[in-house]
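Budget justification aside, the reviewers requested a transparent look at the raw inputs and outputs of the sequence design task funded under Objective 1. We therefore reproduce one unedited record. The lines immediately below are the structure tokens for a 547-residue chain.
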């Protein structure tokens, strides 16, 4: 199955040209995402070294929590999944005027909405921060309010960047859209280089806002090259707005409920101790690495195809495409889960432990990361399943499943946090990913959308292969610890890199011997990333040929 990539538009329309393989596109996006994520974690390491696990970082994470969630819920979570089918619908007749009008009207609507939310948020910042983080002392709360005044207005630029990203993704322009978030990381890292003294965290706040502005500006040139022309129309009775509200309403409510668990989590963490909010935030940044690197790029390039197949008779080829995606995620994320559980402490040390971030902090955060880590695989599967629901224009199923999950999570978190502290908070979140996955699978099954036969057998084979890989990883780490007793950053990085290479090689070899066809696909994908200069060819694994 091939998708199409738009060339620079003609005078009358945005046209489509050379085909590009979905696997090739996913590989390119993965490579770009890895680069962005490396810079993102350099940013996190710089913040950790400069401020450590402290009340200052609690205040910064609190100030960025609501702005980030506004962006993730309203723009990334609601607008993009609904907006892409709207754009694809207007592209069928190749009418540039209609495309420009639809994109512009939706952009204007989102801007007005974001500016309203920003105004309300600034006026009431000290009240909602106190509600969200009741455990903060007076000085931490005051610093959170000041940082919010700096960062929150820049969410308007993130909103515009999200709209441009949705347009680029709809027309299969993935790379630059995936690269844009690097601007924020670079701005923050540069601010930490020059910032000194008690006002350093405020400099970081300004750098965060500037990074969001740059993230929007870098996306303007590719949008112009697509042939898009802005239309200053604020006609909110436009059919696109009606469709956006009709389809996005349940999805928006779903995301509100989904992120409500994060609010409960931060609320409970703020009551535990100073630095608990920072510890949770640091651990989550590591937890989402596999999803950001691999599941998100796969979902990004698969979603336009899912959306097209869902409009065909009997859902076209959607079942096969979903099955292939889920099989690939299982084979990829089961070994990743094992590896993260084994390497949580050294991984935390490599990323964060320097400057004001101490060994004891690494121990706490690695324990939290292990408990989150049990949810790595179901979280990745959920990313794909949600895209399938969106392609079917079903936003009620995610809302229903997340509402049930939120009630269960809240009860579990309250009880487990009372008896086990931050560990109980983390394990509550890790287990919720399994519950959501089960609900989504059952809902899709009722629509006669199944993930295919042989999944149980694949999970068994992959589990055995992952267990063998885990033994190899453990032994290699023990041997390396004996050979290199001095723990410097470079030694830790070398040991972890060697362990990852050995683990990956063992998994691929055993997977091939166990006749897991996706292992061969992973090898082909690795060759693609290593030999980007070669002429691209379509990647096909045996699962595609047999179905």
């Amino acid at each position: 199955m091939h998708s199409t990539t738009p060339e620079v538009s003609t005078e009358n329309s945005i046209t489509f040209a050379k085909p590009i393989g979905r696997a090739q596109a996913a590989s390119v996006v993965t490579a770009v995402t890895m680069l962005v994520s490396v810079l993102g974690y350099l940013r996190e390491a710089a913040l950790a070294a400069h401020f450590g696990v402290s009340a200052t970082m609690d205040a910064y994470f609190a100030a960025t929590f609501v702005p980030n969630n506004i962006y993730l819920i309203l723009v990334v979570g609601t607008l993009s999944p609904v907006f892409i089918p709207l754009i694809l619908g207007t592209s069928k007749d190749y009418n540039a005027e209609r495309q420009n009008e639809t994109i512009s009207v939706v952009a204007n609507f989102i801007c007005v909405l974001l500016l309203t939310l920003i105004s309300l948020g600034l006026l009431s910042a000290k009240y909602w921060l106190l509600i969200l983080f009741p455990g903060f002392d007076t000085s931490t709360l005051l610093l959170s309010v000041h940082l919010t005044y700096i960062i929150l207005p820049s969410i308007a630029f993130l909103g515009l960047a999200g709209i441009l990203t949705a347009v680029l993704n709809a027309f299969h322009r993935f790379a630059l859209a995936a690269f844009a978030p690097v601007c924020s990381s670079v701005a923050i890292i540069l601010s930490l280089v020059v910032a000194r003294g008690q006002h350093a965290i405020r400099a970081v706040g300004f750098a965060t806002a500037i990074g969001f502005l740059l993230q929007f500006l870098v996306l303007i040139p590719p949008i112009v090259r697509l042939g898009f022309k802005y239309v200053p129309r604020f006609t909110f009775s436009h059919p696109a707005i009606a469709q956006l509200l009709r389809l996005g309403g349940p999805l928006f409510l779903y995301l509100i409920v989904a992120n409500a668990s994060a609010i409960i989590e931060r609320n409970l963490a703020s009551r535990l101790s100073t630095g608990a909010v920072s510890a949770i935030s640091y651990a989550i940044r590591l937890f989402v690495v596999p999803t950001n690197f691999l599941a998100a790029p796969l979902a990004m390039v698969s979603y336009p195809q899912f959306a097209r197949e869902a409009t065909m008779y009997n859902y076209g080829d959607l079942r096969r495409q979903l099955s292939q995606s889920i099989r690939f995620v299982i084979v990829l994320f089961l070994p990743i889960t094992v590896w993260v559980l084994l390497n949580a402490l050294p991984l935390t040390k490599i990323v964060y432990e320097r400057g004001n971030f101490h060994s004891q902090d690494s121990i706490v955060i690695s324990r939290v990361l292990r408990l989150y880590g049990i949810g790595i695989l179901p979280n990745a599967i959920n990313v794909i399943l949600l895209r399938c629901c969106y392609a079917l224009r079903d936003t009620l199923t995610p809302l229903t499943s997340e509402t049930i999950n939120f009630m269960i999570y809240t009860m579990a978190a309250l009880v487990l946090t009372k008896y086990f502290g931050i560990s109980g908070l983390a394990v509550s979140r890790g287990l919720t990913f399994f519950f959501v996955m089960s609900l989504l699978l059952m809902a899709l099954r009722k629509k006669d959308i199944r993930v295919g036969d042989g999944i149980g057998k694949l999970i068994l084979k992959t589990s055995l292969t992952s267990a063998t890989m885990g033994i190899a990883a453990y032994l290699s780490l023990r041997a390396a610890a004996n050979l290199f007793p001095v723990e410097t950053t470079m030694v830790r990085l070398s040991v972890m890199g060697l362990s990852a290479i050995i683990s990956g090689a063992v998994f691929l070899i055993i997977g091939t011997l166990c006749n897991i066809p996706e292992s061969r696909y992973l090898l082909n994908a690795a060759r693609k990333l290593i030999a980007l200069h070669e002429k691209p060819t379509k990647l096909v694994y045996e699962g595609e040929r047999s179905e």
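The chain has one domain: 2-11+19-452. The longest strand covers residues 16-21. Computational costs for records of this kind are itemized in the attached budget.
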